[in-house]
Amino acid sequence: MNRDKIIEIVNINMDLFFDETTKDFTQEEKIELKNGFYKQTLDLAYDSIEKYFMKNDLLTHEDIKLIHKIIFPAWYKKIVENKVMIPWVYRDFEVKSNFTNSYPFSIHTNIYVEMDNLLNKFNKSKKTENNILKIIVDLVKIHPFGDGNGRLAAVLTDLLYLKFGFEPFYFVKYKKVDKRWLYNAIILSTNKNDMSILHGFLKKCKV
Q1: What global pTM score does this model have?
Q2: What is 48-92 written as a DSSP string?
């Protein structure tokens, strides 16, 4: 059962990624890229997530980097702030917030320490839905990678829900339905340190 759920979580998130990054491709090229990624990646993704993520009691830097690596096809390259974005490597440069100016991301020299604090706090916490959402919004606020932080957060949310006995939200669907409201809910939850705001939004807008 976990296998189907894990693959579904990866599939849903990657489908949106392919839709956003292959807009200028022909339909045949899109199909070829998707099929190539899924053929090469899904079994590896399941095996890696099941072996290293689902069975580990603690959430680690390696878990975060593993999932980030899985959600990037080998052919994908992106230049961010004149730097090549390398999957699974914490960024060593600054990025501007794509939310609002009042929601700045962490400076790169603080990333490892802030991620370490984030993981330690989560590992010591009771595994409730709100505490899972808390680590996700804090992860987005840190923005540890040069690209793919939103997709990472979406996949990680659903995997943590699955791991701790909750039904996955398939978080990325909310981005497709109403990206602005989702971002506003994340910002408001962060500013008020109240994850019930985001949780209420997800429950109300169940897709």
Answers
A1: 0.88
A2: HIIIIIIT-SS--HHHHHHHHHHTS-TT---EETTEE--TTS--S
